[in-house]
Amino acid sequence: MIEIERALIRFKTKSGHVDAVRDVSLRVEEGEVFGLVGESGSGKSTLLRALAGLTPLSGGRISIGSRPGSRDVQMVFQDPYGALHPRFTVDKTLREPLAINGIGDEDTRILAALAEVGLGPAYRFRYPHQLSGGQRQRVSIARALIVEPRVLLLDEPTSALDVSVQAEILNLLRRLHRERKLTMILVSHNLAVIGFLCQRVAVMRNGEIVEQLGVDAVRSRDVTHEYTRRLLLATEGYTRQNA
Amino acid sequence: MPDALAEIDGLDVAFASHDGVLMPAVRGVSLTVRRGERLGIVGESGSGKSLTGRALLGLLPPEAKWSAKALRLEGQDLLAMRPKARRRLCGTRMSMILQDPKFSLNPVMTVAQQMRETFVRQGVKEGRRALRERIVAALEAVHIRDPQRVADAYPHELSGGMGQRVMIAMMVSAGPRLLIADEPTSALDVLVSMQVLAVLDEMIARHDTGLVFISHDLPLVMSFCDRVAVMYGGRVVETCAARDLVHATHPYTRGLLEANPPLVNPPDELPTLRRDPAWLDEGIAR
Amino acid sequence: MEDLAQMKQPRTGLRAWLLTDTPASPRQAALGRAYRRWRRFSSNPLSMLGLAILLLLIVVAAFGPMLVTQDPLQQVLAERLTPPGAAHWFGTDQLGRDILSRLVHGSRLTLAIAMLVVVLVVPVGLLMGTVAGYCGGIVDTVLMRLTDVALAFPKIVLALAFAAALGPGVLNAVIALSITAWPPYARLARAESLRLAQADYIHVARLQGASHLRILLRYIVPLCSSSVIVRATLDMAGIILAVAGLGFLGLGAQPPSPEWGYMVAAGRNVLLDAWWVATIPGLAILAVSLAFNLLGDGLRDVFDPRHGG
């Protein structure tokens, strides 16, 4: 479904250039949930934006098995406070993609989209500043799904949320994946979040993929690379030197 | 309490909304920290945990309306103290490290300049060269590999982890009795957090500093602290030893614990927190 | 914390409908937002004073000329330089014309000038700025250099040039002022749109297939317009003063037009003996300029993004 072959993303700087993504190759099957885990500066978000077409590739090839000119690829961003247009009500935010793509039956679709993400009609005409962070993320997800995409890209969708709200959003994403058979790529710095939603994961560091493995291998600690091992250990919390 | 390092009793903090209605942010919070103890305060955003920590230091925003039955550091009554005397305590006997060094370090001063100012404020009366040696020694103590270069760098030239270590060097090297750490690792990557926490661990152990660790990350606080207080809606809903937290009884604490996705054997659906409005009215203060 | 926020007292009636957390239609949501903004605005007494003065100006401009009995242009030389009193509330000028009625008739001119400048200047500046900020690159450079050219012109010199070329008059003065007044709005709009173009919701709109034009007009311009409006209100005082200044120099309104600036100019020779001829129109200019400033300050607080804009 999605194939990335030796992708290179290079940014020019004053003193030369910096390679945010270097020689990355991976393959995501249809209906799979694929995770990209790494710390800041690993290139995972940059790679995701390249998949969305928001950042151009400097080398290599990306092919997504989507129909050309369609809205098959949609994205949910990290910051719930920058995700929605501050002057649009929730209704307008959801109506826009329908209007742009000439999709009719707006009212039915909007109510259905809201219900799908667990928001009742009471939220329909609120402005973003009247919504909590978790509610905004739900609207972002509804907005992404209202055009019936086949691929959903998620850039740290729960990092900015409280842990209880994160749990709700993770449950929602899991349910949506099952119901709509979406292909999803999830970027996160949190291995536990990746473990909950994904089947396979690629570990990125300094723009390169350090290891690609199934999530079961991660759970059973059957990891090859030292970096992955360190990330895995860190999920267990801190071990005190002097107890 | 005889060996109490710090005591907060009945703290209330409220803010006036623009229609004049008083919105409470902290309600009747009481906590004690013993010498050398690590107390974690855990809560979600809006629980009032940050404000509680800042109240001790007298760093509440000017528009906050607050009151407390008692606020004590090493037996001294902070409420009765004159503001000047109280300010003198900050940085010497009690100290704070904040979340993001980008915002808590002065961007127009080098690290050395800031540390020099801090040390002078703490009462160090040494000449320029001796002060410089002290600065470099403090940076080495937090395991910064190139202390001379870092000392002459500006905060924006440092990575997040390095910045936090500089903060620790500035705030903890004088050996305060009490340190308040407000989300010290929330802005850092997970591997860097571990390194910074190791440095913090070493420093407070060395100086026998009491620690108040404020965070939204319950598992982290459980692994780093001795005792944990859980806050919700401006109140403390549960306090217990860190190792006993897995057997916590309050539904909110249980909810927080279970909401974290476990890496091994994750459930099909994560249990979600059903917020009971009754929790806003109770409050166990211990 | 949503739970604590819900502990506020319940409201009833129209206020409840406007302030509800769950509006049921776009109109209710929009009216609710307007009402919240009004409450913020009206909580500031100075802003309300500014608004009151401007409303008075509008009322005077609309109905004043019909109520005032004396003809502003009629010269009664026998009653020259009468001090304010029963017959002439604000006195008369050197040609025996009633100052009150001149003031009232002149208010239409003042209001018309202010509105004309806003209508000419704001859309041009807004559009140029947002296009420059959103497109970037060569478009940005070209538009900004055009802006720099316009910014380099001194207002009065340009007005003089216009007067020389097209003859003096209020309309020409307004055009001359407008040509030099739009650059700051373009810059303001450009700064805002540079920042907004990076927002996530813009990226999402692109992913959903929105054209650049749609994003510019429906997403970015509405967000820039509030700061531009605030700026325009604050500038209004300057515009009125500038037109009055031109009138004072003889470049704007021509005699016998009762434009306030011209009235001040005409009265300067008799300032010491008949203070009312110049001072009263001067106070009127002061009041209106101050009112615009207070209104602008109030609007700026209302549109503060911390309260949701």
Strand order of the largest sheet of chain A: 5-6-7-3-8-9
Q: What's the multimeric state?
A: heterotrimer
C-alpha-based Rg of chain B, rounded: 20 Å
CATH class of the largest domain in chain A: Alpha Beta
What is the level-2 CATH architecture name of chain B?
3-Layer(aba) Sandwich
Task: Give your account of this protein's structure.
Chain A: One of its GO terms (biological process) is transmembrane transport. Chain A: One of its GO terms (molecular function) is ATP binding. Chain A: Keywords: ATP-binding, Cell inner membrane, Cell membrane, Membrane, Nucleotide-binding, Transport. The complex is a heterotrimer of chains A (243), B (286) and C (309). Chain A is of the alpha/beta class. Chain A contains eight helices and nine strands. Chain A has two domains: 166 residues, P-loop containing nucleotide triphosphate hydrolases (Rossmann fold, 3-Layer(aba) Sandwich); 69 residues, no CATH class. Chain A has a six-stranded mixed sheet, sandwiched between helices. In chain A, strands 2-1-4 form a three-stranded antiparallel sheet. In chain A, α5 links the parallel β6 and β7. In chain A, α2 packs across α3. The radius of gyration of chain A is 19 Å and the shape is globular. Chain A starts with a strand and ends in a 9-residue tail after the last helix. In chain B, α4 runs parallel beside α7. Chain B contains ten helices and eleven strands. By secondary structure, chain B is α/β, with parallel strands linked by helices. In chain B, the strands form two sheets. Chain B has a six-stranded mixed sheet with strand order 7-8-9-3-10-11, sandwiched between helices. Chain B has one domain: 3-Layer(aba) Sandwich (Rossmann fold), CATH 3.40.50.300. In chain B, 34% of the residues lie in helices and 24% in strands. By secondary structure, chain C is mainly α. Helix content of chain C is 72%, strand content 0%. In chain C, α6 packs antiparallel against α9. The N terminus of chain C is likely disordered. Chains in contact: A-B, A-C, B-C. Chains A and B meet through α5, α6 and α8 of A and α8, α9 and α10 of B.
